[in-house]
Amino acid sequence: MEEEPNRRRLYQVWRGSNKFLCGGRLIFGPDAGSLFLSTVLIIGPLVGLCCQCITKMNSSTSDQKKNVLGLPVLIATVLLGLADLAFLLLTSSRDPGIVPRNARPPECGDEQQVVDMTTPSTEWVNAASPHLRVPRSKDVVVNGCVVKVKYCDTCLLYRPPRTSHCSICNNCVQKFDHHCPWVGQCIGLRNYRFFFLFISTSTLLCFYVFALSWLNIAAEREEYGGSLLKSMGGEVLSVVLIVFTFVSVWFVGGLTVFHLYLMSTNQTTYENFRYRYDKKENPYNRGALANIAEVFFTRMPPSLNRFRSWVSEDDDAYGGGGGGVLSPMSGGLDLEMGRKGVHYSPGGIPAILQGMDYSEMEKMDAVGVHVKDRQAAPEAPDLFVISPAWQHDVGCGGGGGEGERSPATVQDQDAERTLVSSNANSQR
């Protein structure tokens, strides 16, 4: 298929700060250059250990003492190194769970509509229409706990539970953990598994090289009259490897232990530092074994973006992909009001939440998520109908991240309605 003059691939006009390779098949963060440093730090000590193994194998005979650094060590070193580099590439080169952004904020066809908010909010966000305001945040219930989801001014959508916006990559990421400068990528729903395997394999390599270097020094003591210091002086490369791995293991080892704790309690780094679930009830915690199984033994959700799909340069909605590659919002959207005349995207989803994979939607009741104000506004569409990817996020406790507790009371709701109604009457 020839590329038409007015059409380009989605990755070529992507609004985020990502870098794409192989025709949009590989996606990296804007600081992908740090991968070179990480690769050097991994390969360097492994090359040193392999050189020692080859030297010892060539210098020894069957009649001489048996070397610690032999062919089995050489093979194991190469395999561990390749595995570590593979996990690094899988972490840094895949979509971490980017939520497709909307083309524009909500529009309102009836400019005389009165905002009747049912969820308390002290901040309001301007929509496409000057007479329409959408709340900065909204309360939803996840597994019996109230969670606040926030409106993203950059992506023009309400972030799903556990979703947060990365200022470096300029994307909202599902189950956002953190942006790792060592891999040059956000860590989220779709690459957290490989990130943990990367840091745990790096920790294993540190212990592996550290132990073999000490064993090599100990085995060479006989040549130096049994003196450990003289043996260390004769095996300078082993000493360098010992120092390097000793320093490195405090970083990658500590990171591995920390993420093992986060994984067993079903937290992200972002949530741990911001919300401190150890002092509150964590709505996503299902028990240590179930939480760990969720990371390693659940099906990887597909990417919500089709970066190689064609888009028209005349379309201003670069950066999303829902039903079609792009899903610009059209018509009026009376968000939050619970009134008729709300415009839906295909599948009955409000335009504010376009950009998700809604091909296999299921009712929210199946995953225990309800909009808190459903009874107050019975005619309103479900703003948080969950696609399969969101089911994993909310129902199973995994998935995209910014949610904070918000105890919304009935009194606050009544006060909010009274305030908004008074403002509307004064405008009249």
From TrEMBL:
Gene Ontology process terms (BP): protein targeting to membrane
Region annotation (Disordered) ranges: 394-428
InterPro entries: Palmitoyltrfase_DHHC, PFA4/ZDH16/20/ERF2-like
Places the protein is found: Membrane
Molecular function GO terms recorded: protein-cysteine S-palmitoyltransferase activity
Record domain Palmitoyltransferase DHHC: where: 150-274
UniProt keyword list: Acyltransferase, Membrane, Transferase, Transmembrane, Transmembrane helix
Composition bias, Polar residues: 419-428
Domain notes: The DHHC domain is required for palmitoyltransferase activity.
Family: Belongs to the DHHC palmitoyltransferase family.
Alphabetical list of PANTHER family matching this protein: S-ACYLTRANSFERASE (PTHR22883:SF471), ZINC FINGER DHHC DOMAIN CONTAINING PROTEIN (PTHR22883)
The protein's name in its UniProt record: S-acyltransferase
